[in-house]
Design a protein that fits this description.
alpha/beta; two-stranded antiparallel sheet; WH-like_DNA-bd_sf; WH_DNA-bd_sf
């Protein structure tokens, strides 16, 4: 049994199709198909079946999934160690986009300096996908916002808390700056990332509670692009304050007052409780925790 075939199975489950799994693994779709067929032939059963446009596990595949994940987890655990306490091997870590783009860069150089023999794979994912990926063994660790839904098998550590800020272009008309008075229709767009973003959910819940209707929602799946579009006058956004701290200080963005009772989210580090983190993961967690603390979060 080839370990690559098991990795292909995980990629198909995560992406929902052979084509997207191939893109994720940087290989051809025919390679993905070959790996699945070879594994199915070795096991003498069908692992996948198509439901609509998605590939899902067959009943036999569901029964075997825990065993496949156990094999992959064991292999990654072996690869993390060049010897007891050694900073070597490979780790797969998923981080929420705002944390990855705004906080991680300054600590990655220190990680590389202290752990030059570690092969670090960093993945930018939605918080819900990170939680599920750590649970399934796709990632060794996740650093993201607490969106709930964690099982007892996951080990959680709070690293800090990020508060949200409603930001707008400094040129926004005075009549559009009031986000406190209920029952409004405002000719301004809400510029934000994907639908399951915790900060998007916070702001949309607030707008519904206040019966404030904005003209449109513009989805841009990149936090730096969102900030630039807001600064250019396209609309408003609700982002972690640490992510817009520089722009607020420079005056390219302005913060609007908002009477929101719950505007923040805990930053957590999660790994599977049944598996030892290993020295490389512990180092990454410690450096990230220090970076978060330096921001006062």
């Amino acid at each position: 049994m080839d370990i690559r075939s098991l990795s292909v199975v995980q990629a198909i489950l995560a992406e929902g199709s052979y084509q997207k799994a191939a893109q994720r693994l940087n290989c051809s779709q025919s390679t993905v198909t070959f790996q699945v067929r070879r594994l199915e032939n070795e096991l003498s059963l069908r692992l996948f079946e198509r439901v609509g446009r998605r590939m899902v596990l067959s009943r036999a595949g569901k029964n075997l999934l825990p065993h496949l994940e156990s094999v992959l987890s064991g292999m990654r655990h072996i690869l993390q160690y060049g010897g007891e306490g050694s900073l070597s091997g490979q780790v797969r870590i998923a981080v929420a986009e705002s944390l990855l783009s705004c906080l991680a860069p300054s600590m990655l150089a220190e990680f590389a300096q202290k752990a030059p023999r570690v092969r670090l794979e960093l993945h930018c994912r939605n918080c819900h996908d990170i939680r599920n990926g750590v649970l399934s063994g796709e990632y060794d660790m996740g650093v993201y916002y607490n969106v709930g839904g964690h099982t007892k098998s996951l080990s959680l550590e709070k690293l800090g808390r990020a508060e949200g800020a409603l930001v707008a272009p400094p040129s926004l008309a005075p009549g559009l700056r009031d986000f406190d008075t209920p029952h409004q229709e405002k000719d301004v767009a809400f510029i934000i990332n994907e639908p399951r973003s915790v900060f998007r959910e916070r702001m949309e819940a607030y707008l519904r509670a206040r019966d404030i209707l904005l003209s449109s929602t513009v989805e841009i799946w990149n936090i730096e692009a969102i900030k630039r579009c807001v600064a250019a006058g396209m609309g408003v956004s609700f982002l972690p304050r640490f992510a817009v701290r520089r722009e607020l200080a420079e005056g390219t963005l302005a913060e609007l007052a908002v009477n929101m009772p719950e505007r923040g989210a805990d930053i957590i580090c999660v790994h599977h409780g049944s598996r030892d983190m290993g020295p490389a993961l512990r180092l990454f967690r410690e450096l990230f925790a220090e970076r978060i603390a330096s921001e006062g979060l």
